[in-house]
Each structure stands twice: as structure tokens, then as C-alpha cells.
Design goal:
Length: 334
């Protein structure tokens, strides 16, 4: 009896490792034709957890450098390169037919991208065309078909099993460690050229804000200001503090809505999700929608003059003080 049970366990293990080998994931690389966006390395870790072969699609215009970078990333098998003028601006309208054609050729079990503005615009379209449900913004992988995501602004955690033949999944970067950028030996191959132009849209141009500061989504330290900052000019105080810490600057939605800072600085449910080593919330009350974007930060510091502010419930260190006194003092002491 004992013998047959242990044989069963062995067979189940063999079967599940065989299933893992049958998985094949396509990761859609996010980049700017020159450099890979870090979220792609987080997506590679997620792909590794699913198991099986990992291919990466690098679509762009003169994107050979990015393809080279992806080949070196750990765990990558095939790097499918689609270099074409049609992909200028990385519009979902042109990338979707490319992904569908690639899917038709290779029959992947999973298609993955980061839950960024890029992934959020692209994957629902791909899923709709494949007639499957997209699985959005996952924070963990239980098995090849079972994923974990948050709902109700992060107040509840949902585990879902996808029964679709192809799983189209976007991943929350802060919940998956970045895969090593080196040590891999992926093989690059060109995707069959086709006409991916569309008459529905035309990419004209884009203006990207340039900053020497670390990127908000991947910075190791973030200093965020809220309505308590009272004006955009007062954010200078936070930039001075951020400079000392090599930190990115973020904001609450109230600060963005009041026009203190541009909306690409917004942290929260409808902004960016961050999980730096250090998050300093200044003049931010701690509404659940804000917490949804930063509560996974490793160390949270809050400066607020109201001792009852909910931000203190998630803070590791709280300073009940007037920010206009406390922040310059802190900056000076650093
Ligand atoms: C669907 C939906 C989505 C949302 N998405 C987001 C989101 O992504 N991100 C987000 O942030 N919010 C979001 N919100 C808004 C959210 O509910 C809050 O309104 C917002 O986070 C409040 O911002 P705040 O903390 O800066 O402002 P307030 O709540 O007004 O807090 C200001 C704080 O500053 C403190 N303060 C004032 N003066 C000083 C001083 N001199 N010194 C020290 N402290 C001071 C006050 O005590 C107070 O606690 C969303 C809301 C909805 C409904």
C-alpha cells in the first residue's frame, strides 16, 4: 500500500514536471529601441515561474541593441525580432497583428507583459482578438493556470484559475524580482516580415519628459508629496531632499489634481505602483487609493502634522510635525 502510494506521488511529480516542460511563454519586451525597460526582466521571472520555454518578442524600429540585450538575459531561449517602421511609437494597433501572427506560428501557452501603460494598452487587445480573458496585474503565480491579483484597491486578494487555452497575463513588476540581465544565451531570429501598417491610426510624434532623476517605478527611494505641500513651488523642498537620497519624486492624486506636479508623478491605484526600499510620504493622509500604490515599500516614513492620519498605520517611522519645518531640517542633516 505504502509502495503504491509513493509510486503515485512520484508519477504525479513526473507528470507535473512534464506539464511544466510543455508550457511555452512569450514575453513582450518593453523598450525604447535603445534600452530595455526594467519591467521586462520582472516579466522574465514570472515566465520562469510558469515553467517551460521562454521566448521574447522585441518589436521596434532599429531595435537591434535591445535584441542583443535580451539575448543576454538569464533564462531566455528565443528572441524574436520584428524591426520595422510600422512599429514606430509602439502603438497597440500595429503590435497586435504582429503578436497574433507570432502566436499562430509558435502556439504559446502564455503571453506576458508588464502591467505598465504599454502592457495595459496592448494585452487586452491581444486577448480580445484571441477570444480569451486577459488576466491583469498579477502579483503571484500559483501554477501555470492559477494567478493571484488584488481587487478593491488592494483591499482583497483574488486567486483565479484561467481555463483559456492561451493565458494573456500582465504582471505587477514590484511583485517579481528582476531576472539577471546577464548570463543568458538566447538565440535571436527575425520574425517573418509582413505588412503591419494600419489605416486606423498614424503615429505622428511624442514628447517625453527628460529627467536625470531615477525613474519613479524602479527607484530605490521615493519622496512623495501630497495636498499638504500647498503648492507646486513647495515641491522644491522635496526635490532637495530627493537629491540627497538619490530618490525619485512622487505625489498623491490630490497634489496632481491641484496642479502642483504633472500626473506622471502620481502614486496609487490610478497612478504608478511602487515598492522602493524607502518611501517618504510628506503631507499625505494615506487614503486607501494612495496606499494601493506604495504599501509594499520596504520602509515607509510619514511626515504629517495630524497624529490621526491613516498613513501612520502603515508607516514604519512616523514624524508628527509641520512638514515646512521638518523637511528642510531633514535635508540639512543628511
Ligand atoms: C477611484 C479613485 C482612484 C484614486 N486613485 C488615487 C491614486 O492613484 N493616488 C492617490 O494618491 N489618490 C487617489 N485617489 C484619491 C484619494 O482618495 C485621496 O483623495 C488622495 O490620496 C488624498 O491625497 P492627499 O493625502 O495628498 O490629500 P489629503 O487627504 O487632503 O491629505 C493631506 C494631508 O496633509 C497633511 N498636512 C497638511 N498640511 C501639513 C503640514 N503643514 N505639515 C504636515 N502635514 C500636513 C494633512 O494632515 C493631511 O493628512 C483616488 C480616489 C478615487 C475615488
Amino acid at each position: 500500500m505504502m509502495l503504491s502510494r509513493s509510486r503515485n506521488v512520484l508519477q504525479t511529480k513526473k507528470f507535473s514536471s512534464l506539464l511544466k516542460r510543455l508550457e511555452s511563454t512569450l514575453v513582450i519586451a518593453e523598450h525604447n529601441n535603445e534600452k530595455l525597460t526594467p519591467i521586462t526582466l520582472n516579466a522574465l521571472t514570472a515566465a520562469k515561474q510558469i515553467g517551460g520555454d521562454i521566448s521574447v518578442l522585441v518589436a521596434g524600429t532599429k531595435c537591434a541593441a535591445v535584441a542583443g540585450e535580451v539575448c543576454k538575459a538569464a533564462g531566455v531561449g528565443k528572441v524574436l525580432v520584428a524591426d520595422d517602421q510600422a512599429f514606430k511609437g509602439f502603438t497597440p494597433e500595429t503590435l497586435t497583428p504582429l503578436i497574433l501572427a507570432t502566436q499562430k506560428q509558435f502556439n504559446f501557452t502564455h503571453i506576458l507583459a508588464g502591467a505598465t501603460a504599454f502592457g495595459k494598452a496592448l494585452l487586452p487587445r491581444v486577448a480580445a482578438k484571441l477570444d480569451v480573458s486577459p488576466v491583469s496585474d498579477i502579483i503571484a503565480i500559483k501554477s501555470a493556470d492559477t494567478f493571484v491579483r488584488t481587487i478593491y484597491a488592494g483591499n482583497a486578494v483574488l486567486t483565479l484559475k484561467s481555463k483559456d487555452a492561451v493565458k494573456v497575463v500582465s504582471i505587477r513588476g514590484t511583485n517579481f524580482e528582476a531576472a539577471p540581465a546577464t548570463g543568458g544565451s538566447g538565440k535571436s531570429e527575425a520574425v517573418a516580415a509582413a505588412d503591419y501598417k494600419t489605416d486606423k491610426i498614424e503615429f505622428v510624434s511624442q514628447e517625453l519628459s527628460k529627467s536625470d532623476r531615477p525613474d519613479l517605478s524602479s527607484a530605490k527611494a521615493v519622496v512623495s508629496g501630497g495636498r499638504g505641500m500647498k503648492s507646486g513651488d513647495n515641491f522644491k523642498m522635496l526635490y532637495d531632499l530627493a537629491d540627497k537620497l538619490n530618490a525619485a519624486v512622487g505625489a498623491s492624486r490630490a497634489a496632481v489634481d491641484a496642479g502642483f506636479v504633472p500626473n506622471d508623478l502620481q502614486v496609487g491605484q490610478t497612478g504608478k505602483i511602487v515598492a522602493p526600499d524607502l518611501y517618504i510620504a510628506v503631507g499625505i493622509s494615506g487614503a486607501i487609493q494612495h496606499l494601493a500604490g506604495m504599501k509594499d515599500s520596504k520602509t515607509i516614513v510619514a511626515i504629517n502634522k495630524d497624529p490621526e492620519a491613516p498613513i501612520f498605520q502603515v508607516a514604519d517611522f512616523g514624524l508628527v510635525a509641520d512638514l515646512f519645518k521638518a523637511v528642510p531640517e531633514l535635508t540639512q542633516k543628511l
